[in-house]
Amino acid sequence: MTMTADLVARSAELKGQLLDFARQPRYGRAFGEALLARDLTTSIPYEDQLILFMDHFVLQHRLRNGRTVVEQFVASRPDLPQNDRDLLLGWRDVVEGVFEVQRRDGEALIMQNLIDELAYRVRCNMGTAVFRRMPRRAFVIARLVPIGHEWLISGSLAVFPATERDYMYRAAAENALQEPALMFRNPDKLAEAWELQRADRDRFRRFFGTDLVVLAGDQFAARMRQYHDFVRTEILGTDAASDGPRPTNSSAAIFDVEPDLAKSATVGVIYDEVEGMNFYAEFGMVEAVFTDPTLLRNHPYSELLTHYLDDDTVSPLPFRRLADRNPDRVSELFGKLLGRPGFEWRRDGEPLLRERKAAYFDRPPMPSISPISDRLSQYI
Length: 380
What we know:
The chain is an alpha+beta fold. 47% of the residues lie in helices and 15% in strands. The strands form two sheets. Strands 1-2-3-5-4 form a five-stranded mixed beta barrel. A three-stranded antiparallel β-sheet has the order 7-8-9. The two termini are 41 Å apart. The model is unreliable at 239-248 and 250-254 (pLDDT under 50).
């Protein structure tokens, strides 16, 4: 698809039709539920936040049927030419970021995303007059969608002067930590994150002697602090007890004990090569029932295992790791739990996980480490 002024103008027409479609009463309840679940930022005016959220809802939010509004709009319009259909569906690939304006380039603007450190050539279907608000070195919080080989501003945007540099760098650093995937559009950042995670996992294994450890709940926080001090000393080469910033590019950067973990009798910690470090409340009971399926006769064990199976925050990882120890015993365990006497883990385990943990199979694996750039790390 060739980039032309006509294509930008056509994008405005299609976006208007798409938004009209999304405002139908049939989407009202889904929009309200999604809005309630969304944490809106305070860095931009509330009205602009709602516009940005509407853009997210239309292009990215998955409805109960698993489809997005834009997908349903395209499906409802068999009259649309293939170019229009491709353009609309391409908008599901959204870039969110904090951008620094580098220069004007004809009818486009060149901006660098502070989070993924990539440059974007950006168009606007509201006219180039919008760019007058964005001089060189200004900052822009925006959403971009692809249009040809370039990018288009989607939804509202917030512009900040160059004097707000520290504030914008801090916002970019916080966004990168909260959503590491925002950085991984940059293949160099993705490769760096995998390398950092491998190194971090190696430190974990050297400290604990394994990549799966079960800690007593009343010792969990202290033991993890010891581990983090070990990491800090190794990375920074300083006394672990000394003051100073903790390393950003490791699991030692931030560690808060969640309430469910703090009150657990045991906490399981698995540092997986792909999934990174994960914490599991009451893991000792789960490990015990995998070892002795007769414990399912006790309601707390069966209830906890069912909770692990149904909880969206628990990945397939602990099931796979514990099942590897004795697949035959696990077949007996799940046969009893599910009321399926013929259950065989080697045959039925993966389909079970794909059914109960479908969300984990719908997305590619991503590292959990945030490879924050040097210029942003000082703002954490």
